[in-house]
Amino acid sequence: MEEDCIFCKIVAGQIPCAKIYEDEKVLSFLDINPISEGHTLVIPKAHAENLWEIAEGDLAAVHRASKKIIQAMKEVLNPEGVACLQLNGRGVNQVVMHYHLHLIPRVKGSDPLPVSSWEIKPGNQEVIGRLAEILAAKLG
Length: 140
Fold this sequence. Notes:
With about 140 residues, the protein is α+β, with helices and mostly antiparallel strands.
């Protein structure tokens, strides 16, 4: 537990939350600043700041829980879709430095989410190809 982490304090029961799911590795609750009705956060109970730090087992547990939660959202809220958003680092506006996955239900007529609605621009295929080779070599 990180002493100054709000999500660690929620896991420890020091700060209340609108809990919707919990198991041995994961806690999930409604966001207090929702983008839409049902906006949910899914977090590992063990502190990890981002995708670079999270243990593989905790990451898998977050995504297993998100599958259960998204099914409940489908039955309760009947969304047209659900955006799954996860930010890593202050450079992409991660505010709470504890890994968390946003599940954001979208209903017909909702304003577009800026992160899921961008202008399609063709990339430089030569640059894309070189970067793919470099990343693939790094991976293995």
